[in-house]
Amino acid sequence: MKKFRDDFLWGGATAANQFEGAWDLDGKGPSISDMCTNGSHTNPKRLTTTIEPNTLYPSHEAIDFYHHYKEDIALFAEMGFKTFRFSINWTRIYPTGMEETPNEKGLEFYDNVINECVKYGIEPLITISHYEIPYALVEKYNGWYSREVIDCYVRYAKTLLDRYSDRVKYFLTFNEINSGTMPMGAVLSLGCVKGLNVAMNEIPDEPQIRYQGLHHQFIASALAVKYAHDNYPKVKMGDMNIFATMYPLTCNPDDVVGTQRAMQMMNWFCSDVQVRGEYPYYADRFFEEKGITIKKEAGDDEILKNGTVDFYTFSYYMSNCYSADPEKQAGKGNIIMGIPNPYLKASDWGWQIDPKGLRYSLNEIYSRYQIPLMVVENGLGAKDVLEEDGSVHDSYRIDYLRQHIEQMREAVADGVDLMGYTPWGCIDLVSASTGEMAKRYGFIYVKKYDDGTGDLSRSKKDSFDWYKKVIATNGEDL
Ligand code: BGP
């Protein structure tokens, strides 16, 4: 039976706006995520239209990776990481997104991060855009709704490829691009929220705006992929999706057909475009029913065809159930709607834990695309307890990860071509959905709290040594 490849990319994943801090240092401009207030479990974070200096927002300081990167990467190396997924903060490189020349200080910071990875033999895996469109582009263009943003992104992506591709082989064009199919994605991913001042769960549902924005992201992604392929043949370009598989709540054919339709537009639509290079057959009917008209320019179809990705990546946290009965619909997860599955337990945040769903998803994705896959986010958000001696006993996290790795192993034995695994928030960081520090994912605990206190010191959780062993045995000893 097949096992994990010898060169399997074990590692961890992060995002600039959730862990770097230093939100206005060295020429960095504000991004959409800098314009969100702190939130909590019960009080969702809000998008503001002015930065209030006294608004406590952990991501302005986050865990200050900006000044701790050497220490943090050394800890990743100690765990044996083969890869480290991080994103570049667009506004460190182009503070408003519209400059003609990049900010050298910003480029230097990522030179340092990359060089530090290379020093330890860690392969950098870079997300070009992870929930941080420059806020100036939101104000001027209503974010990705306007076609002008494509040029801004392409200029930015080319800058990264020109500067870093001598040391970086793997790039992802957009984090969780399919979040744009859902209202909350309009904020973080698309930035189509000009003039709005709202809580994250109150974003108006405007599919026309979101799908037009997505079209522009598809074009931008394809142009970046094409540029990489033409100029840097060793570079591999990937897409990145939320994959939250759905099960019919019952075997009632209405539930089954409804699940299929929901899967198409939520889980498959974006990757069908990015992997296959064209809009899928089912899109027309969906657009018609929703009254959506996508404005395309001559040449767009060609651009999509010529910019297909080399590998498919996804985040996997949960599965959901679908029912055709509107009374059964309920909101769960950070940006995903779904119905509880009576066979599954959920995290403290209501995310349904479903390791077997990962094996199922890997098989579904691979049978559709037949290109290498990578799980670039997975993990358990939990309220960890730091003991007086600095230890954190997170056996629940170990259980969660073990069960998911077991199922990845099954999928590999099934024949799926899986390249790597980077659990989310390998070091504690700020939650994307709530804006809290309290929801932790890491192998490394960071003393930083939602009230702004904490000395930012790092300590190893029990899961640290466990994951080190997993990597050392290439996933054999779990
Ligand atoms: C994904 C995002 C990440 C991350 C993760 C966990 O949707 O790509 O940025 O934060 O979810 O979500 P949360 O932070 O809301 O727990």
What does this structure look like?
- By secondary structure, the protein is α/β, with parallel strands linked by helices.
- It has one domain: TIM Barrel, CATH 3.20.20.
- It has 15 helices and 12 strands.
- The strands form 3 sheets. An 8-stranded parallel β-barrel has the order 1-2-3-4-5-7-9-10, surrounded by 5 helices. A two-stranded parallel sheet has the order 6-8.
- The longest helix is centred in the middle third of the chain and has 25 residues, at about 205-230.
- The relative contact order is 0.15.
- The mean pLDDT is about 95.
- The structure holds 6-O-phosphono-beta-D-galactopyranose.
- 6-O-phosphono-beta-D-galactopyranose (BGP) binds near residues 176, 334, 431 and 433.
- 6-O-phosphono-beta-D-galactopyranose binds near residues 18, 377 and 439.
- Keywords: Glycosidase, Hydrolase.
Give a quick set of tags describing it.
single chain, 478 residues, alpha/beta, TIM Barrel, eight-stranded parallel β-barrel, 15 helices, 12 strands, binds 6-O-phosphono-beta-D-galactopyranose, Glyco_hydro_1, hydrolase, GH_1_N_CS, 6-phospho-beta-glucosidase
Give a short synopsis of this structure.
By secondary structure, the protein is an alpha/beta fold.
Lay out the secondary structure:
Layout lengths: L8 E5 L2 H4 L38 H4 L3 H15 L3 E5 L2 H4 L10 H16 L3 E5 L7 H7 L6 H17 L5 E3 L12 H4 L18 H25 L4 E7 L3 E3 L4 H24 L6 H8 L9 H6 L5 E5 L4 E3 L32 H15 L3 E5 L17 H20 L3 E4 L22 E3 L11 E3 L1 H11 L6
Parallel strand pairs: 1-2, 1-10, 2-3, 3-4, 4-5, 5-7, 6-8, 7-9, 9-10
Antiparallel strand pairs: 11-12
Helix pairs in contact: 3-5, 7-9, 13-14
The protein binds 6-O-phosphono-beta-D-galactopyranose (BGP).
